[in-house]
Amino acid sequence: MATYRSLVVLAVLPLLTIQLPPAQAASAAQPVASYACRANTKFGQHTLSLRQGVNAKAPATVRPNTRFTIAVDLQPGALPSEVKGFKLKEVRDLALRVPVPANSVYLSASLSGGSGLNSTPSIQRDGNVVVVKVAGPIPGGANYELPTLSVRLRSGGRGTAVETRLKGSSYDDPGLTLQAKIKWKFITTTAPVACFPNPNPALTRTVVR
User: Which end of the chain is more exposed for a tag (fewer CB within 10 A), N or C?
Assistant: First the structure.
């Protein structure tokens, strides 16, 4: 059972982990989202840490009551087809959540780009959170790229700051969720995974002045 539980962790890990080339890894301009994740299986719960490169953009300054756009682009990745003899069949129902920043008013949101997802990504607003959903399935061994999320905002009052952060504060308040389908010998099972950013630094910062 211990070997099987380890499989779930190892299979999900490559979905989000990006190994940057040395030149990129040394650059302070590339934010990195660090997620604490928990995989729930029929054999128990397992925790792991994931790191995801993020290309986030926003203007450095705006005037009060002005429209502007923030963009969040998670870097491309690849799923393994096999982990230590175990087969990762697919990943489904991925949801990425980004809160509407404080000191701003939500106007609209859109998606662009993305590849290898085998479905059309969708976007919805859930209260003060923008949710990107990818039904998949993304097969094991496939390359993929999530779409870029662009959120149109209106700035608040002078002297405030608008900071872009990821959603999530605990396993019960996740900012990233997915379903990993794994085959071990004659057993196929689906493991739900819930992740939250820890730590959760600002990806962008726009000063209103």
Answer: N
